[in-house]
Amino acid sequence: MEDMKKTVDLTPRPEYPRPDFVREDWMNLNGTWAFAFDDENVGLSEGWQMPGEPLDGQIVVPFAYQTKLSGIGPTDAIHPVIWYKRTFVLPENMREKRILLRFGAVDYACSVYVNGHKAGDHVGGYIPFAFEISGLLEEGENEICLRVEDEPDVTQPRGKQYWQKGLMGCWYTPVSGIWQTVYLEAVGETWMKSIHITPDIDRREARVEISLNRTPVAACEAKLEVSYEGQPVQTLCVSLRERITTIPVNMNVRVSPELDGMLTWSPSNPCLYDLKVTLTEGAVKEDCVSTYFGMRKVEVKEGRVYLNNCPIYQRLILDQGYWPDSLITPPSDEAIRKDIQLTLDFGYNGARKHQKVEDPRYYYWADKMGLLVWGEVPSAYLFCDEEIRNVADTLQGFIDRDFNHPSIICWVPLNESWGVREIYTDARQQAMGRMLYHMTKAMDGTRLCSANDGWEQTTTDICALHDYADKKEIIDAHFASREEVETHACDWRPCYAQSEQPRGTEAFMVTEYGGIAFTNIGLQGKLENMETWGYHDKVTDEEAFFQRFEGVTKGVQEIPYCQGFCYTQLTDVMQEVNGLVTPDRKPKMDVERVRKINTAR
Fold this sequence. Notes:
Elements: E1 26-28, E2 31-37, E3 57-61, E4 81-89, E5 98-103, E6 106-107, E7 109-114, E8 117-123, E9 129-132, E10 141-149, E11 177-178, E12 182-187, E13 192-200, E14 205-212, E15 220-228, E16 231-240, E17 244-250, E18 265-266, E19 269-270, E20 273-281, E21 284-293, E22 298-301, E23 304-307, E24 310-311, E25 314-319, H1 333-345, E26 350-353, H2 360-369, E27 372-376, H3 385-402, E28 408-412, E29 414-415, H4 427-443, E30 448-449, E31 452-453, E32 462-466, H5 472-478, H6 482-487, E33 507-514, H7 542-557, E34 562-568, H8 591-598
Parallel strand pairs: 25-26, 25-34, 26-27, 27-28, 28-30, 29-31, 32-33, 33-34
Antiparallel strand pairs: 1-12, 2-3, 2-4, 4-10, 5-9, 5-12, 6-11, 7-8, 7-10, 13-14, 14-17, 15-16, 15-20, 18-19, 20-21, 22-23, 23-24
Helix pairs in contact: 1-2, 3-4, 5-7
């Protein structure tokens, strides 16, 4: 019946894009935008950025044109220059305020125009950016225009995005343009750029660093309200006189008569504190942001990883975050939750998000559901000054955006010497590895760093080795002696770079292994007639899978000095069919049986 029909929200990804940095007054700009390819690169000279200049197509934001959900793909066609346009009317509650235009991610370089005037430029395909556009807005309808460049360039951090047409090895269809949510926020004259919360469980305090857009010009006060599950914990009022201020918050208070004064975050007990920061200047409310944090500590001591001062054995799975119809953009918030739940159901306590700065809501749900996460920078593939700068910028933006997520316990700047192929002997490439490690520790001293995950380590917290042996006895032989592994070349690649010596404190982990593919499961659509791959021979049935899976997993679990593992991988991705589940997230085998093997140690 007509009166029983439910209203359907036609805006894709309608949820607030950053649950760790929430403002009440905002507007989601996802949905249908005007769109055009500019293969001849004539858009600027012809004035496409000007209001009223039409674009000849449409696209559904935030999905890249290569995807089915965009309304254009699927396609692997390369279009180095693309354009977007849409109009909007500012909601009543956001008028008479400063307006921020925010982009979750645009791959790769873009210029943004509002009503024909340039708002700014941005370079970097995985990190967020924003422009304050108040001075460019008009009464009534306004127009946003983007010109995006995404060349098949291997100096830019690409991750698993192939730089040519087609598919190759374990590289997949690339994405171009907008691939995360676009939105507006309303703020005052003085507003908060970031809130970084550093937990210190030993001191039983959290340090809150507030960064403003400018140095306060008048008496500026920040009201900090800490709560737990709706119960007040502590309220502080602090005068802000500088653009960046650090405020210690004492967590040694009782949440309730029944609870201890400080609750720590862990996978088994993912306790989260809420923090609301209200900024006033004089008698005027300038800004208000809600965020959250977890009280947790991660460190490496004498070859072991500790979480909250207790040893932890990590059972990770490699997760590339691709979906058949949307590539690297999660199709929905529920799809993110499903992937995390699958990870937990299979008996893993963590995920290594491989070659991707993930949608912020993935880390939010990992925080809420209790999953450890390794954050990995997408690789570039040509060593040069430009690559160094691009990778470093992406790493900095990644840490800045996701600093508050307690689920993230390790940063991975480099993977398997990608982009630094001569790091074993080349002093410059070794210097880049050390630079990224020390940059990571300078920006975030609370987490671990696996500097070149896989082999040929420079300075690192994790001695991470990848080994795709298909039999337990081979694993046993490879890892019989830690000293032999670290000081001599292994069967595949050396463990450390030539000039590097183990410090003796690193935790050893096998951070890729397995990769078992089926002969007859996981193929979809156009891939059915192409060659697919996993590691070694494909297995023919479930029992054959378990025979190999149990053998290699036990082999890794029995390495006496090993502090954890990472199995390859959670899902099939295009031609790579070595996932535990198909691209549409259907398990290929008995989930509980996998769980029992993973948790045997």
